[in-house]
Automatic annotation (TrEMBL):
Keyword Signal part of the UniProt annotation: yes
UniProt cross-references to InterPro entries, sorted A to Z: Bact_solute-bd_prot1, SBP, TAT_signal
SUPFAM superfamilies (alphabetical): Periplasmic binding protein-like II (SSF53850)
UniProt protein name: Sugar ABC transporter substrate-binding protein
């Protein structure tokens, strides 16, 4: 989460993988018709998007785009669950009543590609000098490609930031070793104060743990095979278990973003690593205490044995429904909404974008605290473009990968759990690849 959108809903689209065939039998879907034909002049360009600050900002500006193309725009904002259900019904029925789709490139794009639901944008992005595809950050740009085809354009990005209390430490820890040792020193569990708080829920924690995994030299997949049984992955599991188990609050294994974030906001923890997109919570008087608002600091992800390797992901992207009768107009919308001018405009309002040019422009960073802007810039340069296994059935993969995390946080022996999870993940990858090829 995606993650600012986690404050809305973070349930995955995995029901799509299980329900694709079944939902194809859905009865008559209004405005659905076989691919082909031509849209009437009064047909609106239909956009379906997550109810997110980016989408809200674009929706306020759609009058400008309507005047540009001479066609009415209908933009529907939904929760993640509603969006999932709508795509499932419409696309299985080859529906033409959605043109532009807001999608998560790392969560459902592989499945949508497998089902042939997304239009190929490769020629459009590559042949449009004004759009400047190479201006998009390398990691989010690469995440937009499936099987050699550009299937989406990133519009919102996120990275993990180290949130810390300036009143408790002289400066942020630069290494994971320093983070752990300092967190342990500051922990006073008998007084309800913790050195560290973070996600520990089995599946939900995987995306944030990914940066710890990469920084220990590991990865989810190595040469196409399970990498979670490697010594690097084992070290990352054990480290994260120490950090949350010894310096974190009780009940950490039940914590997603929604449970962890308020603990830091209420001044009950010294350190917290999560998405930079949620930073405003710690400056909001309705959420954070005065002490936190006055002392919160922002720093890049600390370095592990393999260096500092955070994720830098496109949390939300724009794609075009392959069955749309307005694909040219849909592309014009993407050119406008994700173009250089709009990206700079929105980032100036505090919405993290995906273009390198906006991150290099001091004017677009002025709305962020200075140390947060620097943290974002550094993490973006170092970042990898994924924070979960890139497979069809993402939810199932996260559940397998997260099992040793829970064991580590609970203080159990990680090695046998990781060995079992590695075998289960290896078997899963075989079945998942068969699904891709079917």
């Amino acid at each position: 989460m995606s993650t600012s959108s986690r404050l809305l809903s973070r349930r995955s689209f995995n029901r799509l993988a299980a329900g694709t065939a079944a939902t194809a039998a859905a009865g008559a879907v209004s405005a659905c018709s076989p691919q082909g034909g031509k849209a009437s002049a009064d047909s609106p360009l239909r956009i379906m998007a997550i109810n997110h600050v980016w989408s809200q900002a674009i929706k306020r500006r759609t009058k400008e785009f309507e005047e540009r193309i001479g066609r009415r725009v209908s933009m529907t904002l939904l929760t993640a669950d509603q969006l999932s259900s709508s795509y499932n019904v419409k696309l299985n029925a080859s529906g033409t009543d959605v043109d532009v789709m807001m999608v998560r490139a790392l969560q459902e794009q592989l499945l949508f590609a497998h089902n042939d639901w997304l239009a190929d944008l490769t020629d459009r992005v590559g042949g449009d000098r004004e759009f400047a595809w190479t201006d998009f950050q390398k990691a989010p740009r690469e995440a937009s490609v499936t099987a050699g085809k550009v299937l989406s354009v990133p519009v919102v990005t996120e990275r993990p930031t180290l949130y810390y209390r300036k009143d408790l430490v002289d400066g942020p820890p630069r290494t994971l070793d320093a983070l752990l040792s300092t967190a342990l020193e500051l922990t006073e569990k008998d007084k309800g104060f913790y050195g560290y708080v973070g996600r520990g829920q089995r599946s939900g924690a995987v995306s944030q743990w990914s940066s710890f995994l990469y920084s220990h030299g590991g990865d989810f997949l190595v040469d196409g095979r399970s990498g979670i049984g490697s010594r690097q992955a084992l070290a990352a599991y054990e480290y994260y278990g120490d950090l949350l188990g010894r310096a974190g609050p009780p009940g950490s294994t039940n914590m997603s973003l929604e449970q962890a974030m308020p603990i830091f906001a209420q001044g009950k923890a010294a350190f917290y690593i999560d998405a930079d997109a949620i930073y405003s919570n710690f400056l909001d008087p309705k959420i954070a205490t005065r002490g936190v608002r006055d002392s919160v600091g922002f720093a890049p992800f600390p370095a592990g044995p393999a260096g500092a390797k955070p994720h830098n992901i496109p949390s939300w992207s724009l794609g075009i429904n392959k069955f749309s009768l307005l694909r040219d107009e849909a592309w014009e919308f993407i050119r406008w909404a994700a173009g250089p001018a709009m990206s700079a405009d929105l980032q100036s309002d505090g919405i993290p974008g995906a273009r390198s040019s906006v991150w290099a422009d001091s004017r677009t960073l002025a709305s962020f605290p200075a140390d947060l802007a620097e943290s974002m810039r550094v993490n973006a340069e170092r970042g990898l473009g994924y924070d979960r296994p890139r497979v069809l059935q993402v939810g199932r993969a996260r559940d397998i990968v997260g099992r040793p995390l829970v064991a580590a946080i609970l203080g159990e022996s990680v090695r046998p759990v990781a060995r079992d999870a590695d075998a289960e993940f290896a078997d899963f990858l075989v079945r998942d690849n068969r699904h891709k090829e079917s």
